[in-house]
Structure formats: C-alpha cells, structure tokens
Amino acid sequence: MKKQFRFGTWLALTMALVLLLAACGNKNNNNGASSGSASASPSASASEPASPSASDAGGDAEALKGKKIALIMRLNTGTFSAQYVDGVKKQVEKFGGQLTVIPSDNKLDVMATNLDAAVTQKYDGILLDHGDAGALTAGVDKAIAAGIPVVAFDSGLTNAGVTSIAQNDQKMAEQTLEALSKDSGGKGTIVKIWVAGFPPMESRQIAYKAFLDANPDIKELAAFGTADGAQLDAQTRTEAILKQYPEKGSITAIWAAWDEFAKGAANAVKQAGRDEIKIYGIDLSDEDLALIQDPTSPWVASAAVDPASIGQVQVRYLYQKLHGDETPPTVQLDSVYVSRDALPTDKKVTTADLSQYVDGWGASDTGNTDYLKALEQSVGAK
C-alpha cells in the first residue's frame, strides 16, 4: 500500500513538472514572436517616435514619383510669370512629376472652369496662380473633397486644407515708397500705376494709402492701370500724362505696382526725354534687371522675391501634402529691395547671380524636407 502511494505521488509530481515545462516553452515562444514583429510595442511608440532613416526617406521618395500636376493661372503675361512658371516646371521635373500649365486669359470664370476640369481629370495635385477667393472657393472645396491637394500663390484663398503662398506685398510697397520719399526729399507729385481686383495689388494699395497719409507733401497726380495688355496700356497712358504735364519737374516719380507697368512707363518716360522722373517698381525678372541697370532708363529700383524661387516653394508644399503632411495655411516670402546703386556698372546682372550684389536674393530652402531631397536625388540619379 505504501509503495502504491509513493508511486502515485511520484507520477503526479512528474506530470506537474511536464505541464510546467510546457507552459514555460509556450511563454518563451510567444515572447519570441513579439520581439520579431515589425510594429513597436505600445509603450515604445507612445514615448518617442523613431527618427526616419535614409531608407525610410527613399521609400517616401519612390511613392511621390510620377505625379500629374496642374498649374492653373489667371494670366500668364510677362517675364516675371515666365520665370515663375520655369521655377514650377523645373521643381516638378526634379520630383519626377509631369506639369500641365493651364492659362485662363485673365478671366476668373475661365479659371474656375479650368479648376473644375482639373478636378474631373483627376490630377494628383493642383497649383493656382493669382486667383480670387470669390471665383475659386467652391472649386477648391471640390478638389479637397476629391482628395486632390491645392497650393495657391497670391490668390487670397482661406479654404481649410489649402496652403496659400504669398509675397510680403505690403512690405514690397513700403520698400519702394520709402525709397521714393527719401530720393524726393519727402515732397513732390507722383503717378500711381495699379489695378484693383488682385489680392497682391489690394495689399500693396494698403501700404500706398498709409504712405500718402504719412507724407502730406507728396501728392498723387494721377492713377491708372489695367491687367489686360498691361505694359502697352501703361506706356500709352503714361505718354498721355506726360503731355498733360509737359513741364520738367511737374512729375517727380512714378510708382508702378507691377513690373509690367514699370516697363511700359519706362518706355514712355525715356522716349519723352523726361530724365528727371524716376520709376519705382515691384517684381523683378532678368528683363527688368537690364532696364534698372541701364543708366539711361528712368526705372531705378524694384522690390521683389525671386519668381523662380516662388514656384519652387509652392511645388514643395504641394508635395508635402501629397506625402500626407499637415502644411501651414499661409506661407509668406520676404522681399528684397534692388536699386541701381547696388548693381555693377561694368557687367550685366541676371536673377541667377543677383545674390552676389543683393543680400537675401536667390534660391530658398523654404518647404524642403529630407524626403523631398531624397526624391530629387533619386530622380536625378536616373
């Protein structure tokens, strides 16, 4: 009986030991499966996210290639627009994408129709240039609802999900008007060439009005301007003003709120031999720089942001959206003041080398990210 009891006890202990070992083995196997998983544990992911590696950036880059981008423009006129479009095109190409430029002949209803068509055609991303909130808000909402990201330049849009790129338009107006006041000794009569209905123009007008209020000895003699045939219209109407005020000294300066206006006015003033009149403009292109450098030209200075750089920054924020990043609602680009006095007299300067003479001009890294740099490298390597 004792032997039978001892045997039963031994057997029970043996079975318990076997079950215990089996349980330990299962526990170890489960731990092994957890440590080999690709996802981090909840505690690790909640504490501090891992920094993206080079391979992560490379994967992001591959996913962003081949995007179809639409650039919808209100108008595509002048050398500033040409250099802006060139900046957009080159940046899209560097990201391995395809750009379609869609001008709208300075007609907001046509621009709105073009926007609707781009949504219907399912472009991967949409860029807008010099639009208007009243005309485009509904179309932009359609694009966002369809999952198509939108980044606008100088369009005054406030739709949720849109990033609006803008030059510091009030600052540009202030820079040129302050120079005008300084050069004229704070007194004189001026002509304003400006056009309503464009968000950047409206912002520049705010600074202009404040300038007149702060400088009572500077009087506005005339104001005009149109976006249709801007340069020729500015030239024709400046010629008429010069005939209306033929006496030298009757017009101190012309303030042109767009470089197309400045070019037209400069032609008229130069042909009339009114070398006492100085012109101060806004925006800058290679053609504009040549006129400012010309000692016989009345156009002496301009405030601007590099137009190609604007296009590059706009594309970067669009690709951030395509990547799924949350981008800021507004991005403002600071301008620089470029005067003839700052430029060499023995060589021609272009926007490509202007940074050698004017601090703050040139390519901007705004909107760039590690994965966008990796994308450029990946596209460039092929």
Automatic annotation (TrEMBL):
<keyword id="KW-0732">Signal</keyword>
<comment type="similarity">
    <text>Belongs to the bacterial solute-binding protein 2 family.</text>
</comment>
<feature type="compositionally biased region" description="Low complexity">
    <location>
        <begin position="32"/>
        <end position="59"/>
    </location>
</feature>
<dbReference type="InterPro" id="IPR028082">
    <property type="entry name" value="Peripla_BP_I"/>
</dbReference>
<dbReference type="InterPro" id="IPR050555">
    <property type="entry name" value="Bact_Solute-Bind_Prot2"/>
</dbReference>
<feature type="signal peptide">
    <location>
        <begin position="1"/>
        <end position="22"/>
    </location>
</feature>
<dbReference type="InterPro" id="IPR025997">
    <property type="entry name" value="SBP_2_dom"/>
</dbReference>
<dbReference type="Pfam" id="PF13407">
    <property type="entry name" value="Peripla_BP_4"/>
</dbReference>
<protein>
    <submittedName>
        <fullName>Sugar ABC transporter substrate-binding protein</fullName>
    </submittedName>
</protein>
<feature type="region of interest" description="Disordered">
    <location>
        <begin position="31"/>
        <end position="59"/>
    </location>
</feature>
<feature type="domain" description="Periplasmic binding protein">
    <location>
        <begin position="69"/>
        <end position="325"/>
    </location>
</feature>
